[in-house]
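Operator note (shift B, R.M.): manual run for Rho-GAP domain-containing protein requested after the automated queue skipped it. Running by hand, logging everything below so the morning shift can see what happened. Input copied straight from the record, untouched. If output looks odd, do not overwrite the archive copy; leave it for review.
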Amino acid sequence: MKSRPPPQKLRQRGILRERVFGCDLGEHLHNSGHEVPQVVKSCADFIEKHGVVDGIYRLSGISSNIQKLSSERL
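Run finished. Output pasted below as returned.
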């Protein structure tokens, strides 16, 4: 009986998928290559699209940080 191929090869073939739920968030972000989880991006995009933007950006209360984050999202 042959040994099983390494996980990386199984992922490339689409046989093995990365866990999203029930795994460490930092590990998931590292494996996916993202800094922010996709669900957070989707929620922020939805809120901005529908015009409810005030109050969702919270960064230490420093307005320059909030403005920077707001401009990066556009």
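Quick read of the result: The chain has one domain: 7-71. Residues 7-71 form one domain.
Leaving this for review. - R.M.
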